Amino acid sequence: MRIYTRTGDAGQTGVIGGRVDKDDARVEAYGTTDELNCFVGQAMGFLDPERDADLMADLLEIQHEIFDCGSDLALLKQELRPYKVTAEMVDRLEAWIDKYDAETPDIKRFILPGGSQASSALHVCRTVCRRAERRVVTLARTQPINEEVRSYLNRLSDLFFTVARTANHRAGVHDVEYVRSAEVFRRKS
């Protein structure tokens, strides 16, 4: 199999159900999810395979689901095949957020991205995920999408925040609060 096809040399690319310009909002949206997936893989490389085996397993599942997001975003018409991203996937992200959040100490203010290498990389994932979400919002203004992808990316960025804090906590690294912030977080109950 050849990697190159030459079919995109004129500035268009294939999506499920047709061809669009390479800078089309649809391509921007699923391209940003692809970028996010690369950063997730990089972040996994900074985790401790023994201590963080649960995180690594969850992040591997998320990598597959990010591909599902991209696949749904590349679909021009839902009639061509069923969507892959579901509300149940969003619910599971919420359960993971709660599970990992329970491991970390309370915070009152925003925190600065950083700390351990794993945490820093997961904060990059969080911000790229937010950009992917913005691209999906832009796409949804003019074209049909799987609405669950937008919800999934919104919740996923929250998970990246939580697992970045978890990675720091497990590594014995304290989060650094943004000292100019008001108290914006409530205590865990």
TrEMBL record:
Instruction: List the InterPro entries.
Output: CblAdoTrfase-like (IPR016030), CblAdoTrfase-like_sf (IPR036451), PduO-typ (IPR029499)
Q: Which residues form the Cobalamin adenosyltransferase-like domain?
A: 3-167
Q: Which GO terms describe its molecular function?
A: corrinoid adenosyltransferase activity
Show the catalytic activity: 2 cob(II)yrinate a,c diamide + reduced [electron-transfer flavoprotein] + 2 ATP = 2 adenosylcob(III)yrinate a,c-diamide + 2 triphosphate + oxidized [electron-transfer flavoprotein] + 3 H(+); 2 cob(II)alamin + reduced [electron-transfer flavoprotein] + 2 ATP = 2 adenosylcob(III)alamin + 2 triphosphate + oxidized [electron-transfer flavoprotein] + 3 H(+)
Q: What is its EC number?
A: 2.5.1.17
Spell out the Pfam families in the cross-references: Cob_adeno_trans (PF01923)
Q: Which family does it belong to?
A: Belongs to the Cob(I)alamin adenosyltransferase family.
The protein's name is Corrinoid adenosyltransferase
